[in-house]
Amino acid sequence: MADWRSTFAEIGFKPSGPFGALRTHVEDVEATVVEDGLGLLRLTFTHITKRSPMQYDVTVPLDIPAQQLAQLLVSAFERAHPKVRAKTASPEATPLDYGIVRVGGALIERERAIGLAREYLTGSATWAYPAYDAYQAQSDPNRIEDADLLAPVLLNVNRLTLKAYYGLQQQRPRLQEWLTEIPQGAQLISAEDKDLKPIRMLFGVLDEHRIPDVRGTILAKILHRKRPGFIPLYDERIRRCYQDTERAPVPPQRGRPWGDFFVALAMAMRKDLVDQHETWSEIADLATNPPISHLRALDIVAWRAAGSLSVGDPLNEPLT
Question: What global pTM score does this model have?
Answer without folding.
Answer: 0.71
